Prior knowledge:
This protein is an alpha/beta fold. 29% of the residues lie in helices and 15% in strands. It has a single domain, classed as Alpha-Beta Barrel (TIM Barrel). Strand 7 (194-198), helix 8 (224-234) and strand 8 form a beta-alpha-beta unit.
Amino acid sequence: MPVILVGTCAWHDHANFYPAGLKPNQRLEYYARYFPVVEIDSTFYALQSPRNFAAWAQKTPDDFVFDVKAYRVITRHDQVPLDREELGYILNRFRSSLHPLQEAGKLRSVLLQFPPSFVCNPRNTSYLAWCRDRLGELTVAVEFRHHSWFAGPNLEATISLLEQIRAVHVICDEPQVGTGCIPLVARVTHPGLAIVRLHGRNAEMWYKKGLKTSGERFNYLYSSRELADILQEVLPLAERVAEMHILMNNNFGDYAVRNALMVCEMLGKPVQVDHPSRGTLFPEI
């Protein structure tokens, strides 16, 4: 039987999911009652202390796993003019901080999510391969945000590159507008893992500036039909890998949790949420 784990990208802000009065530092433990995987995204905004990773490992069940989003300087989101030596130092600090998760057997992958400015060219291909090499034995997943990586003949070249550097191709569902997006490419590049990240389909907000919160960009609730169509494309791939993660990144309100619970039901693994607000998590859509 394929191993398919369903969860969300981040656990902090899921309105209506957490019981009233639950403290922020208790949310991960509560989340882990219902989902077996989560993506840590606080690591994207700042380097974290190893103590944080040790605490997160301790608060979750033995079979719970994490995908960790790499620090934004590493993936060139800040466009900071650093040389390879400086970037190598930052990357080594990031990698070292993950040791508590590794030792607990709970680190499943490191996500390198590159920005739309990271276009398909030899310089960026070289940088990607360098990052992958510096992360050593860790399982590395790669998500692009510029369409050039999958345009025309580049699609097969990109898949081949990811296979060669032993990286997981992250399958994405997102708004198809402009060049700062990629299509859903249902391909496997690593025998150990496949990752599917669903960002919503809010085309109006995808490029919008001046948002009050990052969640506004992902203000989209998938319908059951949309989720079924996506699953039809990606589930056959689960037979070809040791494990598949389906992660909801439409983190607006409780949308990510609602859609994750819907996916669980579609997979025949219904989740019973045991507090009064459960009814709000299953709208008629």
